[in-house]
Amino acid sequence: MNHHHRVDSSLGVGGGEPTFRFAFVRTDHRYLPKRSFYLESRKDGTCKLIGSWDGIICIGVRRNSPPYRAGVVVVNPVSMAYAVVCNPIPDGGEFIAGYAHPDTFTVHLMYCCYKQGKPIFQIIKVGDLHWREIAAERLAAVTDTLSEIGFDKQGINSIVPHGKLHWQLRTSSAQWVVLVFDMVTEEFRSMAAPQCATTLVRGFAVLTGRLWSLVIPESKSLEMWVLEDYHDHEQQSWQVFRVIDMTATTHVIDIAKYF
């Protein structure tokens, strides 16, 4: 988390020391974090690790005994400062990103759900009481693309090169696309992604200041694609930087040596 930002600890869960703060500590030290991992923090509630973005950890909290409370605990794992935000409505969507605003450094969470078959994006700033929906006109450039993406049917991981959120997603027609979100204007656009019909595993990363797509097709080779001309929206294209034979060794591969 950017150290210009401080999470307000007065927004904690209930009085005294926050129960779910200690639940996070136990998770962090004893287990590898997993999106589906549940931790029973106390007899009347459970915690679910939602994700980690931009240096913050987000934990879904559900308390079953009166007084009923549920929400998302946002934790700075370094300072252990924390805050609680309300759950988005409707339930059943996906938390797809968390980020510190480039201008204000305040922490935001982003959530995607479906309403009448259309994706709806909501944002909340830590400290606010309510989620707000991103205006439809800010989705205008990607309306057709969004109609082909099932956010609830694939793993959602975001990266933040050039001050914008990026997701590498697969469409219903088996094509790949990069969805881009400007954290200041809150507008969406899309970019092409490397295409490979037989992708088994696909990763997304920022390396050496550039955008990379890491693709493992059925051939079990690792294809490292790089986007050199990011800011040239008309001419940008992906290039294969290197192909690594994954079957040639049983040892851990140090990708750094290929740069």
UniProtKB/TrEMBL annotation:
Residues 52-239 form the F-box associated beta-propeller type domain. It holds the Pfam family FBA_3. Transmembrane segments: none annotated. InterPro entries: F-box-assoc_dom_typ3, F-box-assoc_interact_dom, SCF_F-box_component. Signal peptide: none annotated. It comes from the Eukaryota. This is F-box associated beta-propeller type 3 domain-containing protein. It comes from Leersia perrieri.
